[in-house]
Amino acid sequence: MFSRYKKSANPGKPAGAAPRGKIAELPKKNAAGAEEATDAPTSLRRQKPAAPARSATADKDQKRKERMAELKLDLHRELLENLNLAALDTASEQDLRAEINEITNEVLNQKAVVLNRDDRTQLNQELYFEVKGLGPLETLLQDDSVNDILVNGPQQIFVERDGRLQLTDITFKDEKHLMRIIDKIVSAVGRRVDESNPYVDARLADGSRFNAMVPPVAVDGSLVSIRKFKKDKLGIDDLVRFGAFSEEMAAYLQAAVACRLNIIVSGGTGSGKTTTLNALSSFIDDAERILTIEDTAELQLQQTHVGRMESRPPNVEGKGEVSPRDCLKNALRMRPDRIIVGETRGEEVIDMLQAMNTGHDGSMTTIHANNARDGISRLENMIAMAGIEMPLKAVRSQIASAVNLIVQANRLQDGSRRMTSITEITGMEGDVISMQEVFRFQRVGLTPENKIIGHFTATGVRSHYSERFRLWGYDLPPSIFEPIAAE
Ligand SMILES: Nc1ncnc2c1ncn2[C@@H]1O[C@H](COP(=O)(O)OP(=O)(O)OP(=O)(O)O)[C@@H](O)[C@H]1O
Ligand SMILES: [Mg+2]
């Protein structure tokens, strides 16, 4: 779609790959309810605590939930005693479900408990998830509208949908139950988490990024954060359709990637950095050799020639670490055309900048920063923290000659994720890195529903790289760089 700006007469450099990967429309939001506080008694005489104002149906619901939780616990115990755990891995889903159904029936008969059909189906489903999956988390993992799952102790599970956090009514029975699920996840990847190793990173079987921290460091019960893996990553087309950036910006970025500018995607946590990086990578020519380096492999490049690396923390004895810097150093010996580092946050910054400066142009990475200027300061700080003694001016000129473009991702107050600015680094003026913003998101107001109103616009400056674009066969029409007048 954006390749229309590419001249056809340039056989050596085919037009950038068409954006790939589609994702279903994001679902609509649910509203979360709020609870009310009761008044404190004013008399001196001690009064019986007032019963919270709850409806009879809420009470019934709560009782039902408790009864089901107890039943589940009994049944789970029964299952573990009766199931042949060794055969579990090979058992078909159908057999396992049938077995669970049978054991449930036996236990319900023994206890003389009668459940309606829905409750029974739900109970069987939850038991199946306890045995085979990740217990209460499983429904959320299977819900495509959920981006993040955040557990604050056994009784509180939040999810993020459409950029907003919502409290769910799903809970774990208790901390032991939560710990059992955490153990299940981390032991599957050969890690351990306990009082002496209280936090851990892992990847779920479906590729989701997982982090857990357990007590006593986690004060009110274990903390779990899951970034769900999207099988169909958002592509450029999707991002334009969702209003993350404009068609003009997409056309500019296509030229920037194809002409091998070094690009940094900057943004806050969960602002869409990795998604943007992934989408930008779709513009890389299929003939190039790309090496990716990540802490947890999230990128899904569609090119044929991709080498993926995942760094590794030290093991329990403090050995075996493979840092992002180790991966990067090794990558330089692996004849890459481009290097993509999932996130630069430490000493690997030195090697990243050097790679960008020395023949691996067209490399990309992300950093945590609130705007382009902050991003540059972050890079300077990382270099200083890496223990490199270099005058500030030398550091800056290294950054200025390595980085061409900073793309700023943002999650705005209404939950929408947008690329709020594209800034070019143009060189040095004295001791200062000079830069110019080429595109930005112009906010103009809020709707009554607190949705942000605004539009993307060029700032009117001429791109510093227009000559390069032209030489590489990307004739961007001047209209792309014309600012849109505010309404
Ligand atoms: N423009 C967008 N519209 C809708 N959803 C988006 C958009 N960009 C990203 N997302 C979704 O938001 C979530 C967070 O995105 P992503 O992983 O790219 O963020 P990040 O900035 O890399 O986060 P982190 O700082 O945790 O690494 C993902 O589930 C992703 O699918
Ligand atoms: Mg990320």
From TrEMBL:
InterPro entries: P-loop_NTPase, T2SS/T4SS_dom, T4SS_GSP_E_ATPase. It comes from Aquicoccus porphyridii. This is CpaF family protein. One of its GO terms (molecular function) is ATP hydrolysis activity. SUPFAM superfamilies: P-loop containing nucleoside triphosphate hydrolases. Residues 1-65 are annotated as: Disordered. Residues 132-409 form the Bacterial type II secretion system protein E domain. Pfam families: T2SSE. Belongs to the GSP E family.
